[in-house]
Design brief:
By secondary structure, this protein is an all-alpha fold. It has helices at residues 3-31, 51-78. The protein starts with a helix and ends in a 6-residue tail after the last helix.
């Protein structure tokens, strides 16, 4: 493997890329195009809840956990205790 040749090839590729970039920048300036600002589309992330919505969720979750504890208690009553 000839490192010298590989380095020369990479420098040639670098010069070629720099010329292409320069020509594209020149083309952009001559067309007068202005870069577009980022779109202001919909906000990403979690939606905030109002006080009423939070209260509804709180009540719903309290009922959910109460029912879950009740079912778990009933299941523990049904299972016989292993006495050996």
């Amino acid at each position: 493997m000839d490192l010298y040749k590989t380095i020369q090839d990479l420098y040639a590729e670098k010069e070629k890329l720099e010329r292409v970039i320069a020509s594209l920048e020149e083309l952009q300036q001559t067309t007068g195009s202005v870069p577009l600002p980022p779109s202001v589309g919909k906000r990403r992330g979690r939606k905030s809840m109002g006080a009423n919505e939070r209260q509804e969720v709180s009540e719903r979750m309290k009922r959910y956990w109460a029912n879950r504890r009740k079912r778990q208690h009933e299941q523990s009553k049904r299972q016989p205790v292993n006495e050996e």
